Amino acid sequence: MRWSQRLVVGALCGAVLTGCDSKSQVEVGRSETAASSVALRPFSGDSAVAQAGRVLFLQNNCYGCHGGLAGGGMGPSLRDTVWKFGGSDSAIYRSIHDGRPMGMPTWGNTLSPSDMKTLVVYIRSLRSSAEPKLFFWAANSDTARGAGRP
Questions:
Q1: Cα 31–chain centre separation
Q2: Which of 44, 71, 88, 135 has minimal Cβ neighbours within 10 Å of its Cβ?
Q3: At 43, is the pLDDT very low, low, confident or very high (cuts 50, 70, 90)?
Q4: Structure pTM?
Q5: H-only helix segments in 38-85
Q6: Are 51 and 144 in contact (CB under 8 A)?
Q7: What is the pLDDT of residue 129?
Q8: CB of 145 within 8 A of CB of 138?
């Protein structure tokens, strides 16, 4: 290849790479905007019940499989809008009560029906403006603590 051909090929490669870089920045900006516009979903439940559900979620080690903010881990994300076994309140309740194959244990003999309903409200509050903002609870008391409090 001649020197002039190498120069032209080098210039074309540089232009293509520069164009790809600016395109990827535009696409990243668009995807962040799109993600923020669909981040919240409506919630019509009681935020105090959702808060109690968050404490139950932590106390019963649900985060061990579903992740600390219910975004998934060994178990599926509870923040999604489409679920394998259904996302209605009754389907979520049945999943908690009866368990599911391949990992979800049954909680029907451990939790009261009221506690399972409270967990359903908490799960419904995820990705909404009412989502509980606490990350810890005091094991020796019933008080929940937010991330910024002692």
A1: 17
A2: 44
A3: confident
A4: 0.65
A5: 47-59, 63-66
A6: yes
A7: 80
A8: yes
